Amino acid sequence: MLTNVRPEHMDHYDWDQYVAAKARIVRNHTPADSTVVNYDDDVCRKIAEQAAGHLMYFSTRALPDNLNGVFLSGDDVIAQDGRTRTAICTRQELRVPGATVNLLAMMAVGLLWRVPVPVIRRVATEWSGREHVIEYVTTTERVDYYNDSKATNPWSTLHALDAFPGRAVVLITGGKDDKHADMDPLAAGLAGRVRHVITIGQTGSRITAAAHAHGFTAVARADTLAQAVAQAAEIAQAGEVVLFSPGANSKDMFPDHRTRGTLFKQYVRNLAIDARLSTR
Asked: pTM, whole model, 2 decimals?
């Protein structure tokens, strides 16, 4: 399965080498093999041209009529096999913000393995997500808090921001970068998605500089994650989202992404407890 190819591990590769390494996934395919491909990713599509065997695509946009796969048509999730189209479910039935693309990929694999459409629909609409991946924590003072500690590169943070279209986000981001990540795409993607950024960790100053270079100045600094959560709670307004999506690894402040995600959830739940006590 080819889900996406974005710059990563640039401490070990240049871009062309990295794409070539990813392309090896299909190098030894035979006509008996199958490849599931993200049609919306140009690099994945290019790699798939080298793949022998059956191709199955998934897309958040319409697929060409000559391709098999799963795609969104308005709010409907459609399976396409030749000229036959079958509705699987609606986007509103998918319970996890930001997981639509992953679920489309899962449905494509299900179709490839000839899983009946009603079973695919049931599994997709009942799936409740993974811990530390755009994970809903709680709502307090009419602000929704989400833990995306698994985001260890800027592209993952951009993906998480896509989960909240039309909603203002207060973003907590930053950590340790030992892979030469480019913060510019993240900074360029803040406008129109994020109302305020709070940075932590070693990459905080780089994120701030990149954001300012793109004209985004609503950036504050926190020395600890607890401090960042407290600042976010003060900044966020009713109806908004506080998203913890570091876009870097955890090793500057925490043992691993699970520890920092668990701590974030605890700090947020403490806020909720304090809010309830203050109203008594």
From this structure: 0.86
